[in-house]
Specification:
Elements (H helix, E strand, L loop, with lengths): L2 E5 L5 H14 L30 E7 L2 E9 L8 E8 L8 H12 L2 E8 L3 H14 L5 E3 L5 E9 L5
Parallel strand pairs: 4-5
Antiparallel strand pairs: 1-2, 2-3, 3-4, 5-7, 6-7
Helix pairs in contact: 2-3
């Protein structure tokens, strides 16, 4: 399967806004999730910053040419790491087909350096996914901190800018 992770341009902002709404809907069953606004949408207040601040990067994920998800990266880490996955989403149709793992690896490759990926305590779905994605990318050379930021596992590792 052909999976691409491409830097999102300002013209991609409407697509990312729609994907973020789906992502936030997916998370809406977790404690502390936000409510719908008066227009019936979930809001992500940081989206515009991805084209205004140099330490933020937005990527679109495509599978066989179709939009399949996104990854948002920033430097708002809770450790000494340089990069952090701020948000990550793969549409349900593309899950359990390897799209997420390939997209995560491609994201890590595009920004070499120390990485932090943290999970929310209540987002059990994310724990196993990130453990697998990070371990396979870092070839087992990573640290997992139990009850890190967000209360769930936090993964720390390095990207040398190469795919595993």
């Amino acid at each position: 399967m052909n999976i691409e992770v491409l830097a999102a341009s300002p013209g991609d902002k409407p697509v990312l806004r729609e994907l973020l709404n789906l992502y936030l809907y997916d998370l809406s069953d977790l404690p502390g999730a936000g409510d719908l606004n008066e227009e019936g949408r979930y809001e992500y207040r940081y989206l515009d910053r991805y084209w205004m601040e140099a330490d933020r990067h937005a990527f679109l994920v495509r599978a066989e040419g179709a939009v399949a998800g996104f990854s948002l990266v920033n430097t708002q880490t809770h450790s000494t790491a340089r990069w952090c996955i701020a948000e990550f989403f793969v549409a349900r149709r593309h899950r359990r087909r390897g799209v997420g793992t390939v997209a995560a690896h491609a994201t890590f490759t595009q920004l070499p350096g120390e990485w932090e990926v943290w999970t929310d305590r209540d987002n059990i779905r994310a724990h196993d996914f990130w453990r697998h994605a990070v371990s396979s990318f870092a070839r087992g050379s990573f640290r997992e901190i139990a009850n890190g930021h967000g209360g769930g596992p936090t993964f720390l590792f390095e990207s040398k800018g190469e795919r595993p």
